[in-house]
Fold:
Amino acid sequence: MDMILRIDMGAAGGPKAKVEPVGAFAGLGGRGMTSMIVAKEVDPLCHPLSAANKLVIAPGLLTGTSASTSGRLSVGCKSPLTGTIKESNAGGQAAQALARLGYAAVIIEGKPKGDDWYKLLINKEGIKFTVDNSMKMLGTYATVDKLRKEYGEKVAYMMIGQAGEMTLMNASIACTDRELHPTRHCGRGGVGAVMGAKKIKAIIIDEAGTQMRAPKDPEKFKEAGKVFVEGLKKHAVSGQALPAYGTNVLTNILNEAGGYPTRNFSTGRFEGGSKISGESLAALEDKRGGPGSSTHGCHRGCIIQCSGIFTDEKGNYVTKQPEYETVWSHGGHCGIDDLDAIALMDRMDDDFGLDTIESGVTIGVAMEAGVIPFGDAKAAINLLAEVGKGTPLGKVIGSGAGITGKVFGVERVPVVKNQALPAYDPRAIQGIGVTYATSTMGADHTAGYAIATNILKVGGYVDPLKTEGQVDLSRNLQIATAAVDATGMCLFIAFPLLDQPDTFQALIDLLNSFYGLSLTADSVVALGKKILSVEREFNKNAGFTAVHDRLPRFFQQEPVAPHNVTFTVKDEELDKLFNW
Ligand code: SF4
Structure:
């Protein structure tokens, strides 16, 4: 992985590409790579849909190796949704293919004139650009069906749906999973709109003729890999809960804790929670049998295997097993307790190319506005369908919760930096509120997953209802997460990492034996701080100040049941988060 593929979509005479040495970006991967390139090469004041913005695609430092669970992909740019720097992360097969082809990053810049759409084939021979308008306004499923006829089954596909083509602010980039379904999305922040602005409908990545990346010290790498896998397997979350129920195991836990945002954050417990829980989802899948009755990895080599398939009552494929965040955003947040309706909306989001969190929260905001009633699954499905049709209403909904709240005159809009809050109420779980407020990415649970320590008691315990300790907790998690996001490892390795020092050491040993380095735990912390500092600087130059590091005020004013608490971490405490 010592090359950068630089693609100029706006070059005179048509798109051009060149291969460059990784140079100054050597030693970076994943979010570390995307954020450093965006910070160095993108004008923070540029319009996100302009030729000046760049779409950076990067596998992680360990992606394409035999290290387990290391196949995550980072996509970075200036976000159309938030206006901040953005790293959006997905599973699927694309990252491993890019890494095996030797690319540490693909940088897509410029934009072509005219209305033509392009598809890009990246393989061992280099890159081929083809004008192809036959997939115009096709959903991602139909796009894959067309592409696989031409390029086959043994490649990875990345693409946008209708939302990306319309450059809507909630547009995602879909990556195909092991079954070649377009279910793994770089969802957050509208990265699909940037791909759409560059007139790229699809990227085909063919790793044929490549090898798995080889470590500098194979013996030590193998040994570290063994310890690492044992660590993932023995932890209760990564070894038992996630493989058994997928991420939706969290529904009952968060509902019980009173931190499950219900009907647009109006209460913290959903009466229909148990009907859409991970346990109910698993029971339904078992009853229906077939491919949905067991979990598997979203990419080759994942040992946690939290992913799955959802089938209808006749056993036909509908979508991937919906994630906790998706079940929540279209479920409890909208007052809907019907798993089939939620799965259908997950499928529609994936097909149109939308982030499921933003999509569900947007529908909930529209419900608060009275556009459709809370709890009405049919009306929610119809509203979402407007996005695929590209109607004016659909374009509003596809632009996210913030815009929808403004269009319909809603006061209670759960966004930070215009990005929708995920599935944890920041009043009942104060640590995650600190992360939402201060993350460089807008409201993002994965930026510093305080639920681990506030609720799951992983990595110690900080009382979720108290003010004390939350800023320190979020700071430490945000630093660690930025570093993990650079490795290409799935964030779910963080559970054993936080609890088991030998698993954390095994991750460092994997990096050291692969690259011939002598990193320590301090180096990992330094890397995390460096990434966050660069991202903060970009945001500052884009016009962001301390006043943007705030939750919407209603979280400080409206107590949430059942604990009847407000968000109590003071503004001046939030402002200390990045003081290191
Ligand atoms: S743990 Fe789940 S999300 Fe993470 S890589 Fe494995 S299957 Fe994908």
Notes: The first helix runs from residue 30 to 41. The chain has a mean pLDDT of 96. The first strand starts at residue 3 and ends at 8.
